[in-house]
């Protein structure tokens, strides 16, 4: 069970356990809410920046800065396409933005190919 639980953020103890909605550390007695900690440290605990260095946040509107190929689509996403209401996630292969692109539907993008509006 302890393999799936994160270590204690205070003392890095591996033996954390669940108690109702909280996680508890048996060594330092620190208690924390894992669901509250996840969004605050989204994308691996660091800040997510766009292609020009602006800090991104959930709900931002971004513009795609270069043309992107989309698997299964004859046309890709063109540079300049606006994407509204992004959500930051811990994605696969550096895809740290979850969004819905008009004409393509839901997908994940890399923060290195977008610019904050």
UniProtKB/TrEMBL annotation:
Q: Which domain of life is it from?
A: Bacteria
Q: Where are the transmembrane segments?
A: none
According to the entry, every stretch annotated as the Protein YjdM N-terminal domain falls at 4-33
In what residue span(s) does the Protein YjdM C-terminal domain sit? 48-117
Which SUPFAM superfamilies does the record cross-reference, listed alphabetically? Prokaryotic SH3-related domain, Zinc beta-ribbon
Pfam families listed in its UniProt record: YjdM, Zn_Ribbon_YjdM
Fetch the InterPro entries from UniProt. YjdM (IPR004624), YjdM_C (IPR013988), YjdM_N (IPR013987)
Which family does the record assign? Belongs to the YjdM family.
- Name of the protein described by the UniProt record: Zinc ribbon domain-containing protein YjdM
Q: Which organism is it from?
A: Streptomyces thermolineatus
Q: Lineage from the top down?
A: Bacteria, Bacillati, Actinomycetota, Actinomycetes, Kitasatosporales
